[in-house]
Design goal:
mainly beta, 3 helices, 24 strands, 28% strand
Length: 419
């Protein structure tokens, strides 16, 4: 080989070395200044390698992170749910602009709910019930034509209210067990309209215990066929007992409050009047002359309804004088009645079996009529002629005090106390 050939070879080698050095420099510049070129050259640096340690200033595209384990908790809680991450497309890198770093969702700290403390047990105390208003209803001769009307008043007699406003006699008012209706006898369907001059009939009317208003919705209950008197309610409020002469003489009858079921309970040839239904609904006290004079008797309602009449009735008073107008105490253990066994009309109280009769009025200079019990059984409402005419009084059975609660010049008589 000649020298010229060696010179050519040397020049070619030098040119090759220059190209290699130029390429290396260019690559070096690209790696240092363009992160994407480094990523193409070295790939994702998941773990350090000796090659990567040659480039201390290189920052990887995706930072390496180790997840922090969630703390273990023994407290019951409801974690706040992590929102699902939506992957966003990475924009293409441009010269001189770093690719945006992906957003790493923050670690979620569970929200601990404190253990609920049960509320303290509260004892509900029911409200104290308001006392039910009480009323006394009575018949009075205060009508514009001198007729009997039915009035009502509180037990202290502070006000008197006319309930009937009728041209004829209205008598013998008695309360339904709920205090919302009043049964009474009226002669408004007769020609004379007067007691003793025609046949009375049973009627019903409404009453409002809260306001004391009443007299509306008047309904006739018993049909023609005789004179009906002295009503008494069954404790369930479904029937009325009463005295009637529709059988030819006075007997004790019952009828449903709708006017059906008319039944003769006693079927006796002797006159029997003034019935009073016992609080338990099983018995009727009534006045009968079957012993030769008027006594207070007791009969079974069921036996009467079954047609047995009053054959098994029991004489409670057995007095040679006249006993009548029996009225049961609210608890059914006592019976008040009117008697003339002391020579004048007095009020006695006896046990329900007829034992231990006691004079509770002891008024030898006056005459006392029917007496009805207060709801507590501690007082009686009755009428008496001690002022010179008949007025309604309240007497205290414990202390013996009398209070005139009508104080009117007209006669005030037959009275009953609301339940």
């Amino acid at each position: 080989m000649t020298r010229r050939y060696w010179i050519i070879i040397l020049v070619l080698v030098l040119l090759l070395l220059c190209c290699i050095l130029a390429a290396a420099g260019t690559a070096f510049w690209l790696v240092r200044n363009v992160p994407g070129a480094a990523r193409l050259v070295y790939g994702d640096p998941v773990s350090p390698t000796p090659e990567s340690m040659l480039w201390p200033t290189f920052t990887p595209l995706v930072p390496t992170s180790s997840p922090t384990p969630e703390p273990t908790s023994t407290v019951t809680f409801t974690p706040t749910p992590m929102p699902s991450a939506t992957a966003l497309p990475s924009p293409a890198p441009t010269d001189g602009e770093a690719s945006p770093m992906p957003t790493v969702p923050p670690s979620v700290t569970p929200t601990l709910e404190p253990t609920a403390t049960p509320p303290p047990t509260t004892t509900v105390v029911p409200p104290t019930p308001r006392p039910k208003p009480q009323w006394i209803v009575f018949e009075t001769e205060r009508g514009e034509r001198g007729d009997y009307e039915i009035f009502v008043m509180p037990p202290n007699g502070s006000s008197h209210k006319n309930l009937t406003h009728s041209w004829a006699d209205d008598l013998a008012p008695v309360w339904s067990p709920d205090g919302r209706r009043i049964a009474f006898v009226s002669f408004r369907d007769t020609l004379a309209g007067k007691w003793g001059l025609g046949d009375g009939s049973l009627y019903l009317m409404d009453f409002d215990p809260g306001s004391g208003d009443g007299g509306g919705n008047v309904v006739r209950l018993t049909p023609d066929g005789g004179s009906d008197a002295w009503p008494t309610w069954s404790p369930d409020g479904q029937r009325l007992g009463f005295a009637s002469d529709r059988s030819g003489n006075w007997d004790i009858w019952v009828i449903n409050v709708d006017g059906s079921g008319l039944v003769n309970l006693t079927n006796s040839p002797d006159d029997e009047q003034y019935p009073a239904w016992s609080p338990d609904g099983r018995q009727l006290a009534f006045t009968s002359g079957r012993s030769g004079n008027s006594d207070v008797w007791l009969m079974s309602v069921d036996e009467g309804l079954q047609g047995a009449g009053s054959t098994n009735a029991v004489n409670l008073t057995q007095s040679p004088r006249k006993d009548r107008y029996a009225m049961w105490s609210p608890d059914g253990t006592k019976i008040a009645f009117n008697t003339n066994r002391d020579g004048n009309q007095e009020i006695y109280v006896m046990n329900a079996d007829g034992s231990d009769p006691i004079n509770v009025t002891n008024a030898p200079d006056s005459a006392e009529g029917l007496a009805d019990w207060s709801p507590t059984g501690r007082r009686l409402a009755l009428y008496s002629d001690r002022p010179g005419n008949k007025d309604v009084f309240v007497i205290d059975l414990g202390g013996g005090d009398w209070t005139n609660i009508t104080n009117h010049r007209a006669n005030d008589e037959f009275c009953t106390w609301s339940p």
